[in-house]
Write a structure and sequence with these properties.
- The strands form 3 sheets. The chain has a 5-stranded mixed β-sheet with strand order 2-1-3-11-4, sandwiched between helices.
- Strand 7, helix 6 and strand 8 form a beta-alpha-beta unit.
- It is of the alpha/beta class.
- It starts with a helix and ends with a helix.
- It folds into 2 domains: about 220 residues, D-Maltodextrin-Binding Protein, domain 2 (3-Layer(aba) Sandwich), CATH 3.40.190; about 100 residues, Periplasmic binding protein-like II (D-Maltodextrin-Binding Protein, domain 2), CATH 3.40.190.
- Helix 12 packs across helix 13.
- The chain has 16 helices and 12 strands.
- The longest helix is centred in the C-terminal third of the chain and has 20 residues.
Length: about 325
């Protein structure tokens, strides 16, 4: 109940901020104000690069977009609630919370990939670890139910003969979880980067398993556009995908510059950001075909976990046309 209340309060706060900004929602009319949801993770550095370099504004201006505003969310659940409410137009978000939102009626599609893998199981230095069975009786903080991290952690435990109920899994956003492990309030965390690098830099924990070892080549974050934007303004969505590809390729080729942009945007220490780029097991990619099978597999996993009422299909989740047009 406390978690639900916190989520609802977060959604209400973000919604209030969006309304206060005087946003122009998407519909059959012109779109002058594009609203972007994102999370402060190096997984989603493509958005940060495009935003900080002014590419969103510059590239979308010819299509009548005069203002681009981004809204930061701690995790994917409140971000998808904001999209369900019509308060953001595009979102950088984990594919699992997107699946849960589509299952709840969200009208939106994945228009590009963002990255794969890139989360770590981090334990306090004094907590021993050899196998997943060592987590029995431990308290692990991760993202809320229905997210990538929660889904992968629970699936990995079951696949290794560990009942997830034997591990105390607590839902926290990355800031709260990082504070909790530093304070000794939890034994470990399972979080996306840069949080594992932040904890390592503080000297309070170390990575024991990376998410690619739990589920090889798994999809993580995706770029999502609202159904109304796709139907009514496909030319804007075309450009959004082109700008996203531009930012993704820039980050792959100019990692130090990308780290500096991310540090400026988030206030994170630049050396910690560089360490995150160096140490994670993730890969930035814009190609949705790379993640299709993994994303559809998540629908089966979430169904088995009881998070959604039925598995979803590729057609329920993806629109490849914009990426294919951008690459033609």
């Amino acid at each position: 109940m406390r978690t639900l209340t916190a989520v609802l309060l977060a959604v209400a706060l973000v919604t209030a901020l969006i309304l206060a900004a005087g946003c122009t929602g998407t519909g059959t009319g012109d779109v002058s104000h594009l609203r972007i949801g994102y999370q402060p993770s190096t997984h989603q550095v493509a958005h940060v690069t495009a935003m900080e370099n002014g590419w969103w504004q510059e590239d979308l201006a010819p299509y009548g977009v005069t203002q681009v505003t981004d809204y930061q969310f701690g995790t994917g659940a409140p971000e998808m609630q904001a999209m369900l409410s019509g308060d953001i137009d595009i979102a950088y978000v984990g594919s699992a919370p997107f699946i849960a939102a589509v299952s709840s009626g969200l009208d939106a599609k994945i228009i590009a990939a963002v990255q794969t893998q890139g989360s770590d199981l981090v334990l306090r230095n004094e907590v021993p670890y050899s196998t997943p069975a060592d987590l029995v009786g431990k308290k692990i903080a991760t993202f809320p139910p229905g997210t990538i991290q929660d889904t992968i952690l629970r699936t990995w435990l079951e696949e290794n003969g560990v009942d997830p109920a034997s591990v105390t899994i607590v839902a926290m956003d990355p800031g709260a979880a990082t504070t909790a492990i530093s304070a000794g309030q939890v034994d470990g965390v399972f979080l996306p980067h840069p949080s594992p690098s932040v904890i390592a830099a503080e000297g309070t924990g170390r990575t024991v398993v990376q998410s690619g070892d739990m589920m090889k080549d798994h999809a993580c974050c995706v770029l999502v556009a609202s159904g109304s934007l796709i139907r009514d303004h496909p030319e804007i969505v075309d450009q959004i995908v082109k700008t996203h590809i531009r930012a993704t390729e820039y980050n792959l080729e100019h990692q130090d510059e990308a780290a500096a942009l991310y540090a400026t945007k988030t206030g994170q220490d630049i050396e910690t950001v560089k360490a995150s780029f160096r140490d994670w097991d993730g890969t930035w990619t814009a190609d949705p075909h790379v993640i299709t099978t993994s994303v559809v597999d998540y629908t089966n996993l979430q169904y088995e976990l009881g998070y959604i009422s039925k598995p979803l299909t590729q057609d329920d989740l993806f629109d490849f046309s914009f990426y294919e047009k951008a690459r033609a």
